[in-house]
């Protein structure tokens, strides 16, 4: 059997999985993450949850072919309903939109406890995940960002905060509290690209011959606000660039 090759995104998720945990990968599709985590000895047992029959059967076959039936359990079902309360120490929900991820968390709240580690990787609408975590007393402990093709993927590691405040500012929700501090080259690239896009939108609005409608003016205000947020977050980067000139 060939070695499992994970994409950079899935490798980054794997790196966040705590050693010796019982892992649940919800929406596992191919169950490659669960198989790799077990094969690498990172987890003692894994549950791969999948709502669609096709991927569920493919996952079952993959697990069987790898001889991992004893350690990777593939389950058909919706979200966290495939788990008994507290059954998994680490729950990964990756490769879906932020809305679906928060919906899965919200409906499966009784499957989580104070020991659970959550690893979330929304493909879009990342702020929804961070807002949900903050509102339900989960603290964002670490974050990572990877670039694959033309897309940037953010990975969020969170633990339930027994004490302390989990509140996030608007910019922390949008840009990530840890990512904003780390300011990795990929993070900077993502937000410079966004800033450039906002410049283009504003320039198109300002150069339009038509009188702007109230909705266009509203869009303009939002763009200006977002641009200020980016420039404020990246001011250290901009300062270094200026000093070099
Ligand atoms: N997690 C993998 C990854 O990151 O590469 C696969 C991502 S794939 C794009 C999303 C998977 O989530 C699909 O296989 C889909 O069937 C599954 N899914 C969507 N909604 C789900 C739900 N409510 N419960 C379990 N799985 C779900």
UniProtKB/TrEMBL annotation:
> Keyword DNA damage: yes or no?
no
Superkingdom is Bacteria
Q: Which InterPro entries match?
A: SAM-dependent_MTases_sf, TrmK
Q: Name one GO molecular function term.
A: tRNA (adenine(22)-N1)-methyltransferase activity
Instruction: Say yes or no: keyword rRNA-binding present.
Output: no
GO term, biological process aspect, one: methylation
Top-level enzyme category: transferase
Q: What is its EC number?
A: 2.1.1.-
Matching entries from Pfam families are given as: TrmK
- Coiled-coil boundaries: none
Signal sequence interval, chain numbering: none
Keywords (alphabetical) are: Methyltransferase, Transferase
**What name does the UniProt record give this protein?**
Class I SAM-dependent methyltransferase
